[in-house]
Amino acid sequence: MTLEPLPEDWTRALAVVAHPDDLEYGAASAIARWTRQGKDVRYVLVTRGEAGIADRPPHEVGPLREREQRDSAAIVGVSQVEFLDRADGLVEGGLALRRDLARVIRRHQPEVVVSINFRDSWGPGSWNHVDHRVVGVALLDAVRDAANPWVFTELVDEGLPAWTGTRFVAFGGSTQPSHYVDVSDTIDLGVASLRAHAVYLEALGGDMADPDTFLRRAAEGVGAQVGVDHAVAFEVIWS
What is the model's pLDDT at position 86? Predict the structure, then answer.
């Protein structure tokens, strides 16, 4: 599979994912590169990941994971992080989610939208989290909704006119990658950003508890395909 360099002739991106830590499994290394270039990158989390630790109650986990996400974002140069407060594990597709996502797209006016894999799996023998699948599809629809003045007209009443400036959506970790970003100079920041999710990683255990090995091995694999030390792959869908 031939991967093309992801276009970087833009200045503002909005990263939208379901949970804290979603971006840190690869995409954050690219985000660190972009903020170093002076680009404006902002985060929107659909949930607070409160159902992510089985032996701790959601009312404790939600605030903890929010703090870890804010700390993680700061490491890669992102200061604006907001949460939509949907229920972790129970995110429903449909008009309400599309409206909320169209609202944040119109408000932040990104040229590029970033997310993570929304395909059914991460590869043979796996099944992707329902929140990832639902958010990804809704996000693609919301980019189109945000550009249409006759969809969600109540947003215009909120002072949010249609935004037609989003050029593409880039999904990190997809099983159908089309582009890559060279993160050889920022992989260390990507690793540090994942390490910031310390309590969550400890609860996960196993291979996921070692961000350095996990992220570097994946980035070296993509890098070998494209002729750089470390790279992350994205599936780009044009708006």
Answer: 98
pLDDT at 57: 97
Burial group, residue 217, by CB count within 10 angstroms (0-12, 13-18, 19+): exposed
pTM to 2 decimal places = 0.97
From the number of C-beta atoms within 10 Å of its C-beta (0-12, 13-18, 19+), residue 115 rates as: buried
Q: Strands (DSSP E) along 19-176, which ranges?
A: 40-47, 81-86, 112-116, 168-172
Question: Which amino acid is residue 149, in one-letter code?
Answer: P
CA separation for the pair 126, 122 (Å, rounded): 6
CA distance 86 to 97: 9
Q: How far apart are CA 129 and CA 95, in angstroms?
A: 20
**Per-residue confidence (pLDDT) for residue 189, from 0 to 100:** 98
Q: Residue 109 region, left (φ>0) first, then alpha (ψ -120 to 50), else beta?
A: left
Max Cα distance, the chain (Å):
50
* Ranges assigned E (strand) in 18-92: 40-47, 81-86
Tokens of 131: 């929140």
The span from the CA of 56 to the CA of 61, in Å, is: 7
Q: What is the pLDDT of residue 204?
A: 86
* Total count of domains within the chain: 1
Distance CA 98, CA 94 (A): 6
Q: Which residues of the chain have pLDDT under 70?
A: 1, 207-209
CATH number of the domain encompassing residue 156:
3.40.50.10320
The pLDDT of residue 211 is 86
Query: Under DSSP, is residue 159 helix (H, G, I), strand (E, B) or coil?
Result: coil
Range of the domain at 145: 4-238
Beta bridge partners of 237: 169
Q: What is the pLDDT of residue 210?
A: 79
